[in-house]
Amino acid sequence: MKIVGLTGGIGSGKSTVTRLFGEHGVHWVDADDVAREVVEPGTPALERISEHFGKNILTSEGALDRAQLRGIVFEKPEERAWLERLLHPIIREELIRQLNPENYQLPYVLLVSPLLLETDQHELVDRIIVIDVPEETQIGRTMARDNNSREQVERIIAAQMSREDRLARADEVIDNDRPLDEVTRQVRELHERLLVDFG
Ligand code: ATP
């Protein structure tokens, strides 16, 4: 049972391409979902966070106030470091748990993660797929999807790994600056190759 990492910058098409793999029966674990699950009410991680930042970091329902937390770690790098030291190992353990081979039939499963290459999550995977689009496409699609300003999207892109560095780490590249039917074909061909390689 192999784990294939799938990554790309904001608005590159991770969710879209994941769905296309899903049409072939491929299962996936989404690191963004796991990052949310590990701080749900009642989790040890949320308990530690509310001890550290105070109860005000919780909403009236007892959930994590993400907007507030984002504001704090944006202002204070040492708080960001504290949070990452707490969460990254917990997220990694939960990823490993969910990637358990017993849960899957096909010879590989996808780990979809925007931070695959920036964290030690890449150590969990046997192969790395990068979804590649030019920055202008990333900006246009993200602005259209999220109603963000160009400046907001450009700031996020600037904080992420560069396109060049990401491509240098790729074993496989999906060119998503293409019409969807063409991307669908790329995904089918890659899936078939992965079945042969890992089957
Ligand atoms: P994020 O990192 O922000 O969660 P993502 O990498 O998951 O984003 P998607 O949400 O899949 O990216 O794609 C971003 C937007 O671009 C979506 O609105 C999606 O429908 C659109 N999109 C993705 N691929 C294509 C394509 N090949 N042609 C046209 N539009 C596309």
TrEMBL record:
Q: In which pathway does it act?
A: Cofactor biosynthesis; coenzyme A biosynthesis; CoA from (R)-pantothenate: step 5/5
EC number of the protein: 2.7.1.24
Residues that, per the record, bind ATP:
G11, S12, G13, K14, S15, T16
Molecular-function GO terms, alphabetical: ATP binding; dephospho-CoA kinase activity
| Top-level taxon | Bacteria
Q: GO terms for CC?
A: cytoplasm
InterPro entries cross-referenced by the UniProt entry: Depp_CoAkinase (IPR001977), P-loop_NTPase (IPR027417)
- Entry keywords, A to Z: ATP-binding, Coenzyme A biosynthesis, Cytoplasm, Kinase, Nucleotide-binding, Transferase
Protein localization:
Cytoplasm
Q: Assign the protein's first listed, main location to one coarse class.
A: cytoplasm
> Which reaction equations make up its catalytic activity?
3'-dephospho-CoA + ATP = ADP + CoA + H(+)
BP GO annotations: coenzyme A biosynthetic process
The job of this chain, per UniProt, is described as:
Catalyzes the phosphorylation of the 3'-hydroxyl group of dephosphocoenzyme A to form coenzyme A.
Q: Which family does it belong to?
A: Belongs to the CoaE family.
Q: Which HAMAP family match?
A: Dephospho_CoA_kinase (MF_00376)
Could you identify this protein by its name?
Answer: Dephospho-CoA kinase
